[in-house]
Write a structure and sequence with these properties.
This protein has one domain: TIM Barrel, CATH 3.20.20. Helix content is 39%, strand content 13%. With 289 residues, the protein is of the alpha/beta class. The strands form two sheets. It has an eight-stranded parallel beta sheet. A two-stranded antiparallel sheet has the order 1-2. α2 crosses α3. α6 links the parallel β8 and β9.
């Protein structure tokens, strides 16, 4: 059966000191496709239920509502880890800083805890983008910076070129998509990994292996999939419009303990061609195991 524990956190590296600094809760609330009052209400209720990590992006067009939810929750801003992302058309010097300022204005906050490059853009030199990102951090608009949808080659380049430490690479990761190469690269550079679409857009709910393991622990397949990621040291940001499911994700994925054989069975579900997010402008992905 499930055992009791508190959801763990990773940390923002300080200069050259991986694992030190600002805590980033392992289980966060994804807000993609949430909109309007429903978005604000869910953010506020999720924070009231114990969430302390909320993920948004300028391209989600809900930063204003996320900010409303943060304030409505009554949870002190200093206790909330807030992430947003700059879209790929705003990565040039000057543009990125202005886009960060605009995100802060929409969110109604003085800073975000983490600002990410949402997608790489080969039309803008990566060095230019990283320098702008570093300026955002040094200005105090972001307490930490990172990247999203970066391949091993891009991650190697970013880690080598960034004048400020990068916290995280946020990528699609779930039981059907092996990210072994990206995970290894992130570990090599002292970066955390955050998994978006950790439930494979609902595919996990009907998986026989996850159903069987979930039944043995008295939890749903989604919580098994989330725990599989968390137990690897990966941060997860599942999105849901249901407060009940959000609570279950936080509670069960935080305390469930999977055995080594169960972890191995879930890892064995990975198969080529299981990526659910593959934009036409995506980089050339690393080969899947």
């Amino acid at each position: 059966m499930a055992t009791s524990s508190t959801p763990s956190a990773t940390s923002v590296p300080k200069s050259g000191e991986a694992g030190a600094g600002l805590p980033m809760p392992r289980i966060g609330l994804g807000t993609y496709r949430l909109a309007g009052a429903a978005c604000a209400d869910l953010v506020a209720s999720a924070l009231d239920a114990g969430y302390r990590h909320v993920d948004t992006a300028e391209s989600y067009r809900n930063e204003t509502e996320v900010g409303d939810g943060v304030r409505a929750s009554g949870v002190p801003r200093t206790e909330i880890f807030l992430t947003t992302k700059v879209w790929r058309d705003g990565l040039a010097a000057g543009d990125l800083e202005r886009r960060a300022e605009a995100s802060l204005a929409r969110l109604g906050v003085d800073y975000v805890d983490l600002l990410l490059i949402h997608w790489p853009n080969p039309e803008v030199p990566l060095q230019e983008t990283l320098d702008a990102l570093a300026r955002v951090k040094r200005s105090g608009m972001a307490r930490a910076i990172g990247v999203s949808n970066f391949t091993v080659a891009l991650l190697d380049e970013a880690a080598a070129r960034s004048s400020e430490p990068l916290l995280v690479n946020q990528v699609e990761y779930h039981p059907y998509l092996s990210q072994k190469r990206v995970r290894t690269a992130a570990r090599r550079h002292g970066l955390a990994l955050t998994a978006y679409s950790p439930l494979a857009q609902g595919r996990v709910n009907d998986d026989p292996v996850l159903l069987e393991i979930g039944a043995a622990h008295g939890v749903e397949p989604a919580q098994v999939a989330l725990r599989w990621l968390v137990q690897q040291g990966v941060t997860v940001i599942p999105k849901t419009a249901s407060l009940q499911r959000a609570r279950a994700n936080l509670e069960q994925a935080g305390r469930l303990q999977l055995s080594d054989p169960e972890m191995a069975r879930i890892s064995a579900l990975a198969e080529p061609g299981s990526r659910t997010v593959n934009m036409p402008f995506a980089p050339e992905w690393d080969a899947e195991d």
